[in-house]
Design a protein that fits this description.
Layout: H1 3-14, H2 16-23, H3 29-39, H4 43-54
Helix pairs in contact: 2-3, 2-4, 3-4
């Protein structure tokens, strides 16, 4: 494997929470992306972003 491939894999793993949030169409995917960008370098920040990306969205309140 080349160095470029390893860097691309590392970047994809770093942004995995944001990728999961985008693929699953989370309502707060921008917030998850910012959290991942700013605190993803810590394992706790990355894990929190991944948990938030994996959680089910609450139902939207119905308008009356």
């Amino acid at each position: 494997m080349g160095h470029t491939t390893l860097w691309l894999i590392a970047i994809a793993l770093y942004f995995l929470p944001w990728i999961v949030a985008s693929v699953t169409e989370k309502r707060n995917k921008a917030a998850i992306g910012v959290l991942n960008l700013l605190l993803g370098w810590t394992f706790i920040g990355w894990a929190i972003a991944l948990v938030r990306a994996s959680m089910k969205d609450p139902p939207t309140p119905s308008a009356r």
